[in-house]
TrEMBL record, chain A:
Keywords: Cytokine, Glycoprotein, Secreted, Signal. This is Cardiotrophin-like cytokine factor 1. PANTHER family: CARDIOTROPHIN-LIKE CYTOKINE FACTOR 1, PTHR21353. The keyword Disulfide bond does not apply. Forms a heteromeric complex with cardiotrophin-like cytokine CRLF1/CLF-1; the CRLF1-CLCF1 complex is a ligand for the ciliary neurotrophic factor receptor/CNTFR. The CRLF1-CLCF1 heterodimer binds SORL1 (via N-terminal ectodomain); within this complex, the interaction is mediated predominantly by the CRLF1 moiety. The tripartite signaling complex formed by CRLF1, CLCF1 and CNTFR also binds SORL1. Transmembrane segments: none annotated. Its main location: secreted. The lineage of its organism: Eukaryota, Metazoa, Chordata, Craniata, Vertebrata. It is found in: Secreted.
Length: 256, 240
């Protein structure tokens, strides 16, 4: 059972990604998304604000903890989002209907080339420097959030819109968390070049089936990015750990 | 139009292979113009060395005594289920080998690998297809070197190493769970997963004998848990 709301609603989340998103032929500029009263969403939104704030002296006790805690929080957020996505994907794929909700359905990945791909081979992934690793994550989730909001605008049922809105808010929290890590490490946030904004224009001949295929692959790509981000932030966490300290992390079985 | 044909093929292949499961399968695909041989390979794959390689093996059902046995296998794989696209060899030591290796895994992709094992026999050929996503078939080998050391205050210090076959434990971290049983107890007790490679068992009984095993899984829950390690045993003597 989710905890009751602890804040007066609604509150406005800061806009972190201001990329215009072209869907169909209409240009939609990302606007601040109001929280819908969902407590976990509000907490994720608060995270985006808090991690943007410079270190407060009262919190700086016996030395600068460095970016480690915010990397850990980002890692935890990716795991939370992975859990949340499983629930959302189940609901959405059932809405799309068969064959999209069949576990063995493996369509070709066609027509969604503008979706950011998480896939990478070991040598390339291992050789990414911290700035590039973080930048790729930030850019990917900026694009994916843009497309997800387009999905939300077209969702046919109130339950779907609620699930998508909740996930979008959490994803925005993840973006804020990544931005906080980049700021802590002194890296600038990527700015889109003119003309390179994410575009996902299905075209006038896009059938209902192919539109559903696009939605299917959006959810799959979200999952693979969350897989990758967990590995990315675990790697960053290891790099930031002080070498002389024996760190033991206890993970509780979360039943995900 | 070409896109529609590809999609129709993909859906047809999905329908035809709906009995296939990841890691282990024997999808039925008729041979191309040759007489279908009497047996089809049963194939399974596992990523115990993620992300360096995927190891696949297969067997053929037992054949009647007077029938001919397969002389060689052709093992290839492709990315995705579409008919077009490049296929690569799954590396075998010899054509008669019943195992192969897929190197250089593409991580973080939902486009499945599709392994094709074709058994070439004198009386015909038979093929099996196995689709899988590498992250779904991760299963590390059991942890190694489990050893126990009594500590003062009725404690037992358990240490182990990650499996040698896991190529990068420092960047693809594992987590571990421990189960232990006092000699004579009915059931094992289990410790919640931890990332460290040691653990202190507290409040152990003096004069008791303990048996302890450790299992490993990818830290981010890819795939499944390894089998339990070989058991390590220790006796708590009085005063330790």
């Amino acid at each position: 059972k989710r905890p009751s709301s602890i804040l007066p609603a609604p509150i406005w989340c800061p806009t972190l990604a201001t990329l215009p998103c072209l869907l169909g032929r209409a240009a939609l500029t990302l606007l601040p998304v109001p929280s819908t009263g969902d407590s976990w969403g509000m907490l994720a939104c608060l995270c985006t604000v808090l991690w943007q704030v410079p270190a407060v002296p009262a919190l700086n006790r016996t030395g600068d903890p460095g970016p480690g805690p915010s990397i850990q929080k980002t890692y935890d957020l990716t795991r939370y989002l992975e859990h949340q996505l499983r629930s959302l994907a189940g609901t959405y794929l059932n809405y799309l209907g068969p064959p999209f909700n069949e576990p063995d359905f493996n369509p070709p990945r066609l027509g969604v080339e503008t979706l950011p791909k998480a896939t990478v081979n070991l040598e390339v992934w291992r050789s990414l420097n911290d700035k590039l690793r973080l930048t790729q994550n930030y850019e990917a989730y900026s694009h994916l959030l843009c497309y997800l909001r387009g999905l939300n605008r077209q969702a046919a049922t109130a339950e779907l819109r609620r699930s998508l809105a909740h996930f979008c808010t959490s994803l925005q929290g993840l973006l804020g968390s990544i931005a906080g890590v980049m700021a802590a490490l002194g890296y600038p946030l990527p700015q889109p070049l003119p003309g390179t904004e994410p575009t996902w224009a299905p075209g006038p001949a896009h059938s209902d089936f192919l539109q559903k295929m696009d939605d299917f692959w959006l959810l799959k790509e979200l999952q693979t990015w969350l897989w990758r981000s967990a590995k990315d932030f675990n790697r960053l966490k290891k790099k930031m750990q002080p070498p002389a300290t024996a760190v033991t992390l206890h993970l509780e079985a979360r039943g995900f | 139009m070409a896109l529609r044909l590809v999609l129709v093929f993909a859906v047809s292949l999905w329908v035809g292979c709906s009995l296939c499961r990841e890691r282990e399968g024997a999808c039925c695909v008729p041979s191309t113009g040759w007489q279908q041989a009497s047996s089809q390979p049963r194939v399974w794959c596992q990523a115990s060395r993620y992300p360096v390689a995927i190891d696949c093996s297969w067997t053929l059902p037992p054949t009647p005594p007077n029938s001919t046995r397969p002389t060689s296998f052709i093992a290839t794989y492709r990315l995705g289920v579409a008919a077009h696209g490049e296929s690569w060899p799954c590396l075998q030591s010899t054509p008669e080998a019943t195992s192969c290796i897929i190197p250089d895994i593409q991580m973080f992709s939902m486009v499945p690998y599709v392994l094709n094992i074709t058994a070439v026999q004198p009386d015909g050929v038979s093929s099996s297809f196995l689709p899988f996503v590498p992250e779904h078939i991760i299963k590390p080998d059991p942890p190694e070197g489990v050893r126990l050391s009594p500590l003062p205050g009725q404690q037992l210090w358990v240490q182990w190493e990650p499996p040698q076959t896991w190529p990068f434990p420092e960047i693809f971290s594992l987590k571990y769970r421990i189960r232990y049983k006092r000699h004579g107890a009915a059931r094992f007790r289990q410790v919640v997963p931890i990332e460290a490679t040691s653990f202190t068992l507290k409040a152990v009984r003096p004069q008791a004998k303990y048996c302890i095993q450790v299992a490993a899984q990818d830290l981010t829950d890819y795939g499944e848990w390894s089998a339990w390690s070989l058991p390590a045993a220790a006796s708590m003597t009085l005063g330790e």
